[in-house]
Write a structure and sequence with these properties.
mainly alpha, 0% strand
Length: 256
């Protein structure tokens, strides 16, 4: 037997769009709640001024927070705007989607990964202590990428700007490279106290995995630089979808 809907097809389509918008808004509210809990946890703990290690990564965490909030707002705007104009949500609006993906993958995840790497790697993988000034520079470069991405995705710039996209991508690439160097994942390891010989990365499978994570990060940065050159209008001999390759390297390689 056939099942008939109790409401017209147009109402059904509107209901699905409203459900998608509701899901996006609930995700944004959940993200805001998690950030609120995190801030409350920091306040209830010991004063952060006494934690020198945290001071080294606070700039990276601020960049990550701005990128995360920006991505959630981009998704909310795209969903609500599509609902208001009666557009289909089967394919999410491309401008806010591109903006949110870049903010999350290249801004939020990259900043958090570099920050946590700088704190955990010296304790776990016999790596040298990170370079504090280098971490701040990496945070500044990533912040530039986040700011330019948001500027390029504003409604007043609906079509997007190739120049802004090129600058943003170059900032992300430079931030990733600076962060990888500052974490010292490619430097020599600490010396083992008993033997005074440097710890060998190949003796620890987890350390090998960490090393190749940052190899993928460097690969992503190189593809981002290639994309920046393409957006800047420079002739590139290799014709590749550099942005998609960079996202694949950063997501499937570095993040995983």
């Amino acid at each position: 037997p056939r099942i008939r809907l109790a409401f017209p097809p147009r109402s059904a389509a509107l209901g699905w769009r409203a459900a998608v918008v509701g899901g996006v808004l609930m995700q944004a509210l959940a993200t805001g709640g998690l950030l609120t809990v995190l801030i409350a946890t920091f306040r209830e703990g010991p004063p952060l001024e006494r934690n020198k290690g945290f001071k080294q990564i606070v700039s990276l965490l601020l960049v990550a927070a701005v990128a995360l909030i920006g991505a959630q707002l981009a998704w909310c705007f795209g969903a609500v705007n599509s609902l208001g104009h009666g557009a289909s949500l089967a394919i999410f609006p491309i401008v806010p989607q591109e903006m949110a993906v870049d903010l999350l993958l290249l801004g939020f995840i990259t900043a958090v990964s570099i920050a946590m790497s700088s704190r955990l790697f010296p304790l776990t993988f016999w790596m040298l202590l990170p370079q504090p000034r280098g971490l701040v520079i990496a945070a500044g470069l990533l912040a530039g990428g986040v700011a330019l991405t948001i500027l390029n995705g504003l409604p007043i710039n609906a079509a997007g700007s190739s120049a802004l996209a090129a600058l943003a991508t170059a900032c992300y690439a430079a931030g990733i490279l600076q962060g990888a160097w500052s974490v010292r994942v490619f430097h020599a390891r600490k010396r083992i106290p008993d033997t005074q010989t440097p710890h060998r990365i190949w003796e620890d499978p987890a350390a090998v995995g960490v090393f190749f994570c940052y190899v993928w990060a460097v690969v992503a940065a190189l593809f981002l630089l290639l994309f920046a050159l393409q957006q800047a209008g420079m002739a590139v001999a290799v014709h590749l979808d550099a942005k998609s390759l960079a996202r694949h390297a950063a997501g499937a390689g570095f993040m995983t």
